[in-house]
């Protein structure tokens, strides 16, 4: 609990600074699934809080938060590059999903989405080296499970960002209980909670959106904290589930699944003025 409060404090400072220096920009204007115009500022603010607070934590409390800060920073940076490109380097058509980016590569185009996946994958592999693992050959599997959980978890929050505040709710569902544990994981849970809450109301009203910038930053921060907190067996289970969901997303629409289940639909629509 104390660690979570420490994270909330770090994020509160970062949030105050970010609100002052992050203005709105014309190039951040996008259209959502209904064609409504909105801004990426909400995502940039959440990313700024996540990166800023975790970096501040490194300065205040030492190197324990450094892997999370670096992973979150790389994820936010690569997400911002992809947000700004808007598919211009994807080739004949805008690449969507893993298959789309691999198809673009096959056609001779290196999409920013592929760059993002490579950057997050590489950063996740490095960050996973700091997670607890066994000695010998078993340690290799432990490392792969950790890296997979981090990379797939970061991407999963991005996959949820198809409706207002859906991705933020996903983060909060994980970060709130995480903030109750002790140590660096609890601190990261506190930071992620504030970062996800930052701009929640504007996102719910469809005035802003997370975009890849915000979703990737929140995903990286949250799942590194979870990976630190979970026992090794749970890390394997989490990695398997997240990778399976990632591949399933190539075939199945998460939005259609959510809309078809009454409980999920009510949770998903909660907080949106129009219930959409």
Give a short overview:
The protein is mainly α and 276 residues long.
Please give a handful of descriptors for the protein shown.
Glycosyl transferase family 4; two-stranded antiparallel sheet; mainly alpha; single chain; 71% helix; 276 residues; globular
Description:
This is Glycosyl transferase family 4. It comes from Winkia neuii. The model has no long low-confidence stretch (mean pLDDT 89). This protein has one domain. The chain is built from 13 helices and two strands, in the order αββαααααααααααα. The protein has a two-stranded antiparallel ribbon with strand order 1-2. It is globular. The longest helix is centred in the middle third of the chain and has 24 residues, at 137-160. Helix 1 (2-21) packs across helix 2 (41-61), helix 1 packs parallel to helix 8 and helix 6 (137-160) crosses helix 11 (232-248). It starts with a helix and ends in a 7-residue tail after the last helix. A hairpin with a 5-residue loop joins strand 1 (29-31) and strand 2. It is mainly α and 276 residues long.
């Amino acid at each position: 609990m104390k660690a979570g409060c420490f994270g909330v404090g770090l994020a509160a400072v970062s949030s105050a600074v970010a609100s002052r220096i992050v203005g709105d920009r014309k190039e951040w204007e996008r259209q959502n699934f209904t064609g409504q115009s909105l801004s990426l500022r909400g995502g940039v603010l959440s990313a700024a809080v996540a990166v800023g607070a975790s970096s501040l934590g490194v300065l205040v409390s030492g190197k324990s938060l450094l892997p999370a800060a670096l992973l979150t920073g790389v994820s936010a940076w690569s997400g911002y590059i992809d947000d700004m490109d808007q598919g211009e380097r994807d080739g004949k058509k805008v690449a969507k999903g893993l298959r789309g980016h691999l198809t673009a590569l096959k056609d001779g185009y290196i999409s920013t989405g592929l760059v993002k996946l490579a950057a997050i994958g590489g950063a996740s592999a490095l960050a996973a080296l700091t997670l607890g693992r066994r000695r010998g050959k078993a340690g290799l599997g432990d490392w792969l499970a950790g890296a997979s959980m981090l990379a797939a978890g970061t991407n999963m929050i991005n996959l949820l960002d198809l409706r207002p505040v859906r991705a933020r709710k996903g983060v909060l569902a994980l970060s709130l209980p995480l903030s109750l544990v002790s140590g660096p994981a609890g601190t990261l849970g506190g930071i992620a909670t504030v970062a996800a809450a930052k701009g929640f109301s504007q996102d719910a009203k469809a005035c802003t959106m997370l975009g890849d910038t915000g979703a990737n930053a929140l995903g990286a921060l949250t799942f590194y904290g979870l990976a630190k907190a979970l026992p090794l067996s749970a890390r394997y289970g989490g990695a398997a589930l997240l990778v399976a969901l990632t591949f399933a997303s190539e075939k199945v629409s998460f939005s259609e699944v959510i809309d078809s289940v009454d409980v999920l639909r009510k949770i998903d629509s909660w907080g949106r003025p129009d219930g959409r």
